[in-house]
Specification:
The protein is built from 4 helices and 7 strands.
Length: 141
């Protein structure tokens, strides 16, 4: 479920791998469970973000069934939950299987060194954009 840029966190290494490490660079922790379908749906997006932000963001996965203390400490009540840590503190929380754009906006909002590092997608000529319920959609008409 994890690729080579994503490490695993548990109750034993959470302090060192997440809280202490977040003093040097932001750390995003994906709280998930093996039985959770939305978690599996979000996994490829988390892997893409880990690849896109390699060297700028540390990405960890924490199985809530195996690390109940860490999940309880941060009051993770629904999964998947993404927590972004900076200087040992939670600075952003995202709950649910959300689009990649929503996660990258949260990353950019909370960390200056993650801003504008990825190439922007250019809309095709003639592609119309519209907004529905806060999401941007493209029409290739």
């Amino acid at each position: 479920m994890a690729d080579n840029t994503i490490q695993t966190a548990d109750d034993k290494n959470f302090e060192a791998e997440v809280l202490t490490a977040s003093n040097a660079q932001p750390v995003m922790v994906d709280f998930w469970a093996e039985w959770c379908r939305p978690c599996h749906m979000l996994a490829p997006t988390v892997a893409e973000i880990a690849h896109d932000y390699a060297g700028k963001l540390k990405v960890m996965k924490l199985n809530v069934d195996e690390a109940m203390n860490s999940a309880g400490r941060y009051r993770v009540q629904g999964i998947p939950t993404l927590l972004l840590f900076k200087n040992g503190q939670v600075v952003e929380q995202i709950v649910g299987a959300v689009p990649k754009e929503q996660i990258t906006k949260a990353l950019e909002r909370t960390s200056d060194n993650l801003r504008a590092k990825l190439p922007r997608r250019v809309a095709r000529k003639g592609a119309a954009r519209f907004f529905l319920f806060g999401f941007a959609y493209r029409c290739g008409c």
